[in-house]
């Protein structure tokens, strides 16, 4: 798993009815984009995460709106 500052980290819910948690990577603490990452959640809370198999990185280029 590789991420850069500004990417979104999506942690998928593990049980039925649990929503995905989305955070933004604000600092990469590993070498060459590898974990751990400092992330910021929508409520402003920050945490250091080493994502597991239930996580997905959405790169900045993937969540941009197409330009017409």
UniProtKB/TrEMBL annotation:
Annotated Gene3D superfamilies: Domain of unknown function DUF1918
Biased composition (Basic and acidic residues): 56-68
Chain intervals for the UniProt region annotation (Disordered): 49-68
Ranges for domain DUF1918: 1-57
Name of the featured protein: DUF1918 domain-containing protein
Organism expressing this protein natively: Streptomyces thermoviolaceus subsp. thermoviolaceus
């Amino acid at each position: 798993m590789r991420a850069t500052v500004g990417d979104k980290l999506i942690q998928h819910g593990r049980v039925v009815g649990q929503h995905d948690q989305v955070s933004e990577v604000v600092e990469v603490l590993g070498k060459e984009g590898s974990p751990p990452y400092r992330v910021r959640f929508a409520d402003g809370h920050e945490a250091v995460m080493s994502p597991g198999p239930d996580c997905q990185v959405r790169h900045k280029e993937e969540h941009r709106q197409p330009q017409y």
